[in-house]
């Protein structure tokens, strides 16, 4: 068992984080007082495991339009590429706008759009969709 002492948490609280094995056992002020193996985190922000929460606006809301596949990564990629060949500027714009309006703020668009044809038009439409939702 080990701990992080005096960690600044995302909610603004300063607390200890006690880790048992690979799991957080307890979080709270002073809970690591008796834990000899501890790191002083005074003045440091402790965050949960990093999860890349971005979305590809050109791929959002297409699951129901993908053909069934064998469940492998290769099958999924092939199904997505088949759907991407049917993209239109308006199609991408409307799906992107729906997700932006729902609250998506971290997006990845350029790489995929450059690989699917009409990149300039699609980027312009996505930027327009972003502007319409502000």
Instruction: Report the structural category.
Output: alpha+beta
Low-confidence stretches: 109-115
- Our measurement of the CA-to-CA distance between the termini, rounded to an integer number of angstroms, reads 47 Å
Beta-strand portion reads: 15-25%
Radius of gyration: 22 Å
Helix % is 25-40%
Biggest β-sheet, characterized?
Answer: 4 strands, mixed
DSSP summary, beta strand count: 4
> What characteristic shape results from the CA principal axes?
elongated
Strand order of the largest sheet: 3-2-1-4
Pattern of helices and strands:
EEEEHHHH
What does this structure look like?
Mean pLDDT is 80; it is low at 109-115. The chain is elongated and about 60 Å long. Strand 1 and strand 2 form a beta hairpin. The chain is 33% helix and 17% strand. The chain has a 4-stranded mixed beta sheet with strand order 3-2-1-4, with no helix packed on it. Helix 2 (89-101) packs parallel to helix 4 (119-132). The chain is of the alpha+beta class and 134 residues long. The protein has 2 domains: 2-40, no CATH class; 63-132, no CATH class.
Question: Short summary of the structure?
Answer:
With 134 residues, the protein is α+β, with helices and mostly antiparallel strands. Helix content is 33%, strand content 17%. A four-stranded mixed beta sheet has the order 3-2-1-4, with no helix packed on it.
Please name the defining characteristics of this protein.
134 residues; single chain; alpha+beta; 33% helix; 4 helices; 4 strands
Topology of this protein?
Blueprint: E1 2-8, E2 14-20, E3 23-28, E4 38-40, H1 73-84, H2 89-101, H3 110-114, H4 119-132
Parallel strand pairs: 1-4
Antiparallel strand pairs: 1-2, 2-3
């Amino acid at each position: 068992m080990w701990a992080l002492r005096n960690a600044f948490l995302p909610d603004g609280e300063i607390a200890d984080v006690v880790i048992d094995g690979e799991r957080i056992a307890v979080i709270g002020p002073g809970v690591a007082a008796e834990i000899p193996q501890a790191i002083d985190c005074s003045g440091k922000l402790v965050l949960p495991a990093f999860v890349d929460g971005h979305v590809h606006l050109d791929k959002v809301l297409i699951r129901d339009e993908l053909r069934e596949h064998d469940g492998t990564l290769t099958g999924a990629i092939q199904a997505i590429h088949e759907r991407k060949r049917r993209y239109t500027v308006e199609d991408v714009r409307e799906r992107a706008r729906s997700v932006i309006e729902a609250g998506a703020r971290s997006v990845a668009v350029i790489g995929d759009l450059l690989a699917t044809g009409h990149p300039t038009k699609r980027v312009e439409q996505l930027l327009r969709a972003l502007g319409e939702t502000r």
